[in-house]
Specification:
Elements lengths: L2 E6 L15 E2 L2 E2 H11 L4 E6 L11 E4 L7 H9 L6 E6 L7 H10 L5 E6 L2 E2 L3 E5 L3 H8 L6 H10 L3 E5 L14 H7 L13
Parallel strand pairs: 1-4, 1-6, 4-5, 7-10
Antiparallel strand pairs: 2-3, 6-9, 7-8
Helix pairs in contact: 2-4
Length: 202
């Protein structure tokens, strides 16, 4: 598969109060769950994007550092796009443990040369489970040089320019995008996905 995958692990986890990557979910740390998911896709390469090189990173996974000062997911995706040698970059958030292999394969089937895909729920993009074309690199760099560090803003421009196409998330698929922000989310979701937590910093 001519895709590079990146696990976005650069969040500060302020609301969680500890590093999300090492939180146990169904007996496994989140980083292991997400990397195993990405491995099953058989991408050309797997990256981990973070502020500093995480101690849990496997030797065969390349570390990509956020450019300082870090602007959250915007920096992670930008730094990863600058490293890719494939046509597309699949970005996946650390705190989205209900995402499925079949759905990511579905997204991969939607991409075209020079065009990626971003899921949307109620008109709002889900940019941390999306596939970006290598051509989006300049758009992310331009955003980092400005004052608006919202990934949503970059995604809107990419859609308008034809570099991203939107895919509406069906109701039964919404549980895949549940993300864990607080310990209460972890406790509530230990028995299965029961809702969707808004992501405040995209």
């Amino acid at each position: 598969m001519n895709i590079t995958a990146v696990l976005l692990a650069g969040g500060e986890s302020r609301r969680m109060g500890r590093d999300k990557a090492t939180l146990l979910f169904h007996g496994k740390p989140l980083w292991q769950i997400q990397l195993e998911l990405l491995r099953r896709l058989k991408p050309a390469e797997i990256l981990v994007s973070a502020r500093t090189d995480p101690s849990w990173r496997p030797a065969d996974v390349q570390f990509v550092a956020d450019d300082l000062p870090s602007r959250g997911p915007l920096s992670g995706i930008a730094a990863s796009l600058a490293q890719v040698h494939t046509a597309h970059l699949l970005a996946l958030a650390m705190d989205m443990p209900f995402m499925s292999e079949s759905y990511l394969h579905y997204l991969c089937d939607q991409i075209e040369p020079g065009t990626g895909v971003v899921p949307t729920i109620d008109g709002r993009a889900e940019p941390l489970a999306a596939i970006y074309p290598r051509e989006a690199d300049n758009d992310f760099r331009t955003a980092l040089a400005g004052t608006d560090f919202s990934v949503q803003s970059v995604v809107r421009r990419l859609v308008e320019s034809g570099k991203l196409q939107e895919v509406r998330v069906k109701e039964h698929e919404m549980k895949l995008f549940l993300n864990l922000n607080e310990l209460s989310d972890l406790e509530r979701c230990s028995h299965g996905p029961v809702g969707r937590t808004a992501r405040a910093n995209q």
